[in-house]
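Sequence design from tokenized structure. All designs in this work follow the same two-part layout: the structure record, then the generated sequence. An example of the structure record is given first.
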């Protein structure tokens, strides 16, 4: 059963119950009230009749006059009237036939005041009926009480008529109240169930992953509170799901990267190992001449060196990224660091028949850096520039300061980097087109190491390159004000 039906039925049931309880109480109350009023009226009547009886002075023995008087009184007051003698024996009764009490005795204690002439007696009169009330009036003959006149009425009839009317009007009121409650209940319960239905719809939408739905929370009651709580919940879930999706994608990217790195590593390891193995086998089996032997040993040495550099680079990168390598920062003169690095790289350049020129400010450029690591990054850039420059080429290394930043750039006159390679050259193991870079040795780790180090310093490593016009790599480092 819907909440709406339950609420409406409850409203109506409560109203009917309340009407019923009030009806029963009120009927009882009215019954008592009517009886009290009726018996009070009888006493008033008796008080008026007493002086009349006294002034008429009808002797109890005058049966005819008595009957006329009693029947006259009975019809005016709509009551039954009896007359007893001074000992309580009924001598006249307006009720006739089988009902007549003539000859029977009314207990004297009920009418004692009237017999003594000291006042009126009002009493329940079960001899006549269960709800009969009698009022006894002294019957004066001269100055003496010769009998007692009893005016009797049944209150049952009066109260049952009144009760019927009360019950009928209560039923009418009850039906009217139930009707009104039904209408009010339906309207009221709709104002509760409609927002609930909307919320259920939104909850279902949320469970389908639709978070855009919003519940109008304009009422200031508990339903409004619930609606705004649901809106907040929906936003939170949406945020959470977004975060989780992002995390999931990130994780997938990391997994893919790991996978790629593993296959790159195994590929890069396999090439020199295969070569070493092949030449080692040839040395033992087929190579006879001294020249071939020397050549094979030279290749084995070169390949072993390549292998060892690759492993070292990898080891360095892994330790760098995992934070294992210390990164002690200290105040240094960047100009000196650049000049020293260039000097250190000169033999490498010379071996490749490349000239390096350096241009730094003459005054010191103070910066907080990890010198060993920054030198490593700069070496990688100079190494690339020298490696990819044609023999006789020139590599320019310069340091300048502007806008609170130091810019270290390494330019070469090499082949340049094709636009499609540019977004990837900083990725681990990424090597440009082999046909273009020829058989230049390398694992594709130098730039990713350099970028990691520079970013650790809060700086950036950028590249500008045009095919056929050389490349310029620029390290930008923030110099804090001192
Ligand atoms: N100065 C440059 N001129 C032309 N191409 C470059 C230059 N520097 C880098 N590249 C391209 O970017 C790629 C990635 O460079 P990176 O230094 O990471 O690797 P690598 O030099 O190939 O190997 P490694 O540095 O590990 O010995 C190179 O393979 C090359 O194709
Ligand atoms: Mg390199």
């Amino acid at each position: 059963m819907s909440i709406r039906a339950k609420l409406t039925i409850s409203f109506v049931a409560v109203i009917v119950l309340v009407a019923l309880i009030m009806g029963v109480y009120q009927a009882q109350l009215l019954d008592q009230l009517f009886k009290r009023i009726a018996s009070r009226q009888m006493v008033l009547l008796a008080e008026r009749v007493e002086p009349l009886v006294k002034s008429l002075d009808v002797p109890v023995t005058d049966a005819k006059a008595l009957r006329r008087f009693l029947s006259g009184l009975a019809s005016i007051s709509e009551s039954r009237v009896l007359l007893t003698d001074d000992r309580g024996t009924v001598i006249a009764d307006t009720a006739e036939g089988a009902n007549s009490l003539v000859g029977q005795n009314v207990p004297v204690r009920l009418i004692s005041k009237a017999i003594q002439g000291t006042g009126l007696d009002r009493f329940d009169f079960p001899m006549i009926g269960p709800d009969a009330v009698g009022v006894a009036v002294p019957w004066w003959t001269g100055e003496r009480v010769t009998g007692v006149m009893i005016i009797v009425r049944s209150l049952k009839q009066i109260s049952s008529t009144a009760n019927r009317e009360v019950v009928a009007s209560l039923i009418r009121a009850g039906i009217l109240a139930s009707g009104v409650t039904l209408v009010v209940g339906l309207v009221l319960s709709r104002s509760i169930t409609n927002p609930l239905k909307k919320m259920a719809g939104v909850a279902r939408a949320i469970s389908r992953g639709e978070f855009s739905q919003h519940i109008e929370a304009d009422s200031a009651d508990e339903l409004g509170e619930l609606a705004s709580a649901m809106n907040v919940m929906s936003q939170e879930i949406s945020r959470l799901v977004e975060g989780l999706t992002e995390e999931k994608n990130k994780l997938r990217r990391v997994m893919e990267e790991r996978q790629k790195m593993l296959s790159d590593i195994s590929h890069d390891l396999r090439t020199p190992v295969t070569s070493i193995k092949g030449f080692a086998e040839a040395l033992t089996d087929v190579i006879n001449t001294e020249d071939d032997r020397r050549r094979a040993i030279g290749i084995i040495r070169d390949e072993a060196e390549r292998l060892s550099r690759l492993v070292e680079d990898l080891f360095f990168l892994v330790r760098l990224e995992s934070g294992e390598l210390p990164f002690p920062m200290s105040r240094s003169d960047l100009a000196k660091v650049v000049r020293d690095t260039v000097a250190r790289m000169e033999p490498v350049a010379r071996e490749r028949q490349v000239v390096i020129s350096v241009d730094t400010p003459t005054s010191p450029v103070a910066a907080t850096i990890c010198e060993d690591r920054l030198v490593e990054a700069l070496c990688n850039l100079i190494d690339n520039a020298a490696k990819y420059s044609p023999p006789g080429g020139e590599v320019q290394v310069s340091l300048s300061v502007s806008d609170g930043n130091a810019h270290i750039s390494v330019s070469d006159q090499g082949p340049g980097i094709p636009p499609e390679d540019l977004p990837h050259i900083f990725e681990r193991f990424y090597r440009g087109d082999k046909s273009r870079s020829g058989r230049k040795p390398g694992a594709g780790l130098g730039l990713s190491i350099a970028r990691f180090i520079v970013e650790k310093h809060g700086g950036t490593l950028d590249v500008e390159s045009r095919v056929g016009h050389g490349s310029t790599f620029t390290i930008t480092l923030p110099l804090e004000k001192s």
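The mean pLDDT is 88. We note this feature because it recurs in several other targets discussed in the main text.
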